Amino acid sequence: MAGCGDSENGVKKIYHALFVNEVEACALAGTETFEADAVLTLLHEKYPQTRLLLTAGSAGSYYLDAERRLFVPCEKVQAVDTTAAGDTYSGYFLAGLCSGSSVEDAMRLATKAAGIAVQRKGAAPSGLPPDSGAPGCADHKWRFAGV
After folding, report:
1. Average pLDDT for residues 116-143, to the nearest whole number?
2. Closest of 122, 119, 123, 97 to residue 108, by C-alpha
3. CB-side exposure of 41: number of CA atoms within 13 Å?
4. Tell me, what's the pLDDT at 104?
5. Per-residue DSSP letters for 51-98?
6. Phi and psi (nearest 5°) for 65?
7. Cα dist. 41→66, 78, 95, 97, 98 in Å?
8. Residue in 65, 81, 87, 105 annotated catalytic
């Protein structure tokens, strides 16, 4: 990514969206203590043109851009393995946006999919089914079992 623009802590200033978990958000914000609203505010100050999506495990997910701040709580499930939860969340969030969903609806879809993923052991069984059609996310006919 050299030559793509200035960077700070490895984050290119040209990015329009930033997906981070709690640990990554704290590192980028320069704080050791996670408090979602404070960390989001710090990140927004550093990257004011960037849409921020922060996943916080069982606490839910947060979104912040220049116009709105959103929070979507997680559904309470019996987690077996959190492997692939973040990837599942990111994939379903982006697929929701690609299919025309609002940011909040895409967050809800992603939250539901990640909640299902953590109820399965291992990354492969928790991921998208092979016939999901996910690569062509313009076609939103695919569904994760139960989503």
Report:
1. 54
2. 97
3. 5
4. 96
5. EEEEE-GGG-EEEE-SS-EEEEPPPP---S--TTHHHHHHHHHHHHHH
6. -140, -170
7. 11, 32, 26, 24, 27
8. 87
Distance CA 84, CA 117 (A): 7
Give 137's pLDDT tier (boundaries 50, 70, 90): very low
CA–CA separation, 49 vs 126, rounded Å? 34
E strand or H helix at 38, and its extent? helix 36-46
Q: Is 69 exposed, middle or buried (0-12, 13-18, 19+ CB in 10 A)?
A: middle
Query: pLDDT (tens digit, 9 = 90+) per residue, 37-85?
Result: 999 999 999 988 889 999 998 999 999 998 999 999 998 999 888 888 8
Is 87 marked active-site? yes
Q: Distance of alpha carbon 134 from its chain centroid, rounded?
A: 16
Estimate to the nearest angstrom the gap between the alpha carbon of 114 and the chain centroid: 10
pLDDT in tens, 99-110: 899 999 999 999
Give the separation between CA 43 and CA 4, rounded to whole angstroms. 20
